[in-house]
Design goal:
heterodimer, A: seven-stranded parallel sheet, 33% helix, globular, B: three-stranded mixed sheet, three-stranded antiparallel sheet, 29% strand, elongated
């Protein structure tokens, strides 16, 4: 038997195991998914680099849809409650999760936050993740759909640079398209790279600021909410 | 950059697996880490070194095996290593979505030293 340290005098026993280190997170995420399914609430996890326009997209989406559906938002940030305040100014319920330095949201944080929210008649819950294209990829939050934003000012090379994120993404949203004439960003290149990493990714092109592409995005959201609810009618049409 | 969270999960997972028995006797912890797991092995090892001293894990070392990304084509059955994150079958050219290896983030082996007869009889 190999002698490992000065102290090692006993026999060594090898435990061959396969213990997933994200098992606890995945378990909690599955509970959240069941809970939200029982409540007929569609859950979206919004991820991107900092400054890609997640909060702006939410603000604009809420403006257009709040008369039709009931929206709730969970905001994740390292510090400050600024994003939740921006969302509350649009007249919808928002709760801020301050991670105090942790670079991503974990399912446990969502589970802890949910009891502080009122989900009566809510149709959709947006979870805005911490701005980071790396770590949030590994953490299932119990969402139905993962949406990754890429702003055209940050470059069209993101899918290949952050493949884990794009592998786990359902929808890619290219934001700030009003700036396309001024920046060297190729929509074709970003879609080609994203499809090479994950052929199932669908893409939206939009500008929250100017409004281009917002109708398609909002129509798609309504369609997804209706799919989730099945035969149930939307809250505000009841 | 979530190596600290993962490190904490290593400790918790092993404590549960071994029912908190003989943690001080663990000599080696072996991990399998896929290239898609977003974990930097050297940082994880350093974090482990930093936090283990105050825990029953102080006598153990972390070993990390990196797993390259592999996929299997559902169209033609080709199994291949994924190069440069191009998830396209090199044989038939169809997009591939079932990654067979490379997402792992797991403990594969725990080596525990059991006290010798000499020690027990002391």
């Amino acid at each position: 038997m190999q002698k490992l340290t000065n102290k090692a005098v006993g026999t060594l026993r090898v435990h061959d195991v396969s213990l997933n280190l994200l098992k606890a997170n995945d378990y909690i995420a599955e509970r959240i998914r069941e809970d939200m399914k029982a409540k007929n609430i569609l859950v979206l996890n919004l991820v991107s680099s900092p400054g890609s326009g997640k909060t702006s997209l939410l603000e604009e989406t809420i403006k257009r849809l709040k008369s039709k559906i009931n929206i709730a938002v969970l905001e994740g940030d390292l510090e400050t409650e600024r994003d939740a305040e921006r969302i509350r100014q649009q007249g919808v319920q928002a709760l801020q999760i301050v991670t105090q330095g942790i670079c991503h949201l974990e399912a446990q944080m969502i589970q802890q936050a949910l009891p502080s929210m009122n989900f009566d008649n809510i149709d959709i819950l947006f979870i805005e993740n911490v701005g980071n294209l790396v770590c949030p990829a590994s953490y299932d939050l119990g969402e139905d759909i993962r949406v990754t934003l890429v702003s055209c000012t940050e470059g069209d090379d993101k899918p290949k640079k952050y493949p884990s994120m794009f592998l786990t993404t359902d929808i890619m949203v290219v934001t700030k398209t009003d700036l396309l004439p001024y920046v060297p960003f190729s929509v074709d290149a970003v879609i080609k790279d994203a499809k090479e990493v994950n052929s199932k990714i669908d893409t939206f092109l939009l500008s929250s600021y100017k409004g281009d592409g917002m109708d398609e995005w909002c129509d798609w959201l309504i369609k997804k909410i209706q799919e989730k609810k099945g035969d149930l009618v939307l809250t505000n049409e009841a | 950059m979530h190596e600290l969270s993962i490190c904490q999960s290593i400790l918790n997972t092993i404590e549960t697996e071994l029912d908190n028995q003989g943690i001080e006797n663990i000599r080696e912890i072996h991990l399998k880490v896929g290239m898609l797991a977003c974990i930097e092995p050297e940082i994880l090892k350093n974090v482990f070194q930093l936090i283990k001293d105050d825990t029953p894990f102080r006598n153990s070392e972390l070993y990390i095996e990196l797993i390259e990304v592999s996929a299997e084509c559902k169209n033609c059955g080709e199994k291949f290593k994924v190069e440069k994150y191009i998830f396209v079958c090199p044989s038939c050219g169809k997009p591939v979505s079932n990654v067979t290896e490379g997402k792992e983030l797991l403990i594969s082996k725990i080596i525990v030293e059991e006290p010798s007869y000499a020690e027990i009889n002391q």
